[in-house]
């Protein structure tokens, strides 16, 4: 069985760990300097350690620390060309990582839904191996992209869950405003997003067609859609994505220069 280490067991590292645990066919070593972070993932891994050199013994090493810590972690990691290093930090280029390790480097932009094995990930096609594809398949879906598309992918699928959480919250709050209790409103809103997303993924129909399918003639939905079509809702979402993309590009400038 392939052994995977996750260095950095914060929000994203722990989501990956839990997703791999749910997949049931992974041996995982968790590494973090913070004992509380290790404690929070202890039930989902084979071993925990605060020693990076112990984490370096795995076939696949996922570096899940903040972008500005990546360089320091790589300096402490002694890997061979037979090992694969998965780099998930926003803005940190493959070249930056390549320059600091002998391992095969694959850059990935994952997202928080790895925890439930519903991750949407973007992976740079260069360097990607079947081993990596299998790992990503086990925690969700992935698209192989050109590294030049990584900033926009970071905004769409990396940051995207936060934007969608916000929209679910908006829908739930509107439900509460209309008289639903909070728990019902949140469940109905979240399940509606999940069902709509599944429908887009599984249906042969395009999104315009699906909107039409909900809008019964002289019914309720078209009244709401008219409000959305006349609003700046789409432009606001586009602006949020553009702001995240711009920040990813700023980080990329910082972590490309060395
Ligand atoms: N959060 C997300 O949804 C996503 C994050 N990412 C990327 O994942 C990376 C991690 O982000 P996120 O999980 O949010 O960050 P967190 O701060 O939640 O997690 C980082 C973890 O790494 C630990 N850490 C710091 N230094 C070391 C070290 N030298 N060795 C081992 N562990 C260390 C931190 O401990 P301490 O807190 O004590 O410093 C913390 O537990 C980032 O590069 C980010 O760009 C990518 C996609 C989505
Ligand atoms: O906000 C961030 O920088 C990270 C990268 C994508 C999602 N979270």
Automatic annotation (TrEMBL):
Pathway(s) of this molecule: Amino-acid biosynthesis; L-proline biosynthesis; L-proline from L-glutamate 5-semialdehyde: step 1/1
Subcellular location: Cytoplasm
Residues annotated as domain Pyrroline-5-carboxylate reductase catalytic N-terminal: 6-91
Gene3D superfamilies linked: NAD(P)-binding Rossmann-like Domain, ProC C-terminal domain-like
Pfam families found in the cross-reference section: F420_oxidored (PF03807), P5CR_dimer (PF14748)
EC number: 1.5.1.2
UniProt keyword terms in alphabetical order: Amino-acid biosynthesis, Cytoplasm, NADP, Oxidoreductase, Proline biosynthesis
Enzyme class: oxidoreductase
InterPro entries: 6-PGluconate_DH-like_C_sf (IPR008927), NAD(P)-bd_dom_sf (IPR036291), P5C_Rdtase_cat_N (IPR028939), P5CR_dimer (IPR029036), Pyrroline-COOH_reductase (IPR000304)
Single GO MF descriptor: pyrroline-5-carboxylate reductase activity
UniProt-listed SUPFAM superfamilies: 6-phosphogluconate dehydrogenase C-terminal domain-like, NAD(P)-binding Rossmann-fold domains
Cellular component, GO annotation: cytoplasm
Superkingdom, natural source: Archaea
Main location: cytoplasm
Residues annotated to bind NADP(+): 7-12, 64-67
Tagged with keyword tRNA processing: no
GO biological process: L-proline biosynthetic process
KW Amino-acid biosynthesis (keyword) present: yes
Coiled coil: none
NCBIfam families per record: proC
Family from the record: Belongs to the pyrroline-5-carboxylate reductase family.
HAMAP family reported in the protein's UniProt record: P5C_reductase
Role this protein plays: Catalyzes the reduction of 1-pyrroline-5-carboxylate (PCA) to L-proline.
Name of the protein this chain belongs to: Pyrroline-5-carboxylate reductase
Species this protein is from: Natrinema pallidum
UniProt lineage: Archaea, Methanobacteriati, Methanobacteriota, Stenosarchaea group, Halobacteria
Gene, per the UniProt record: proC
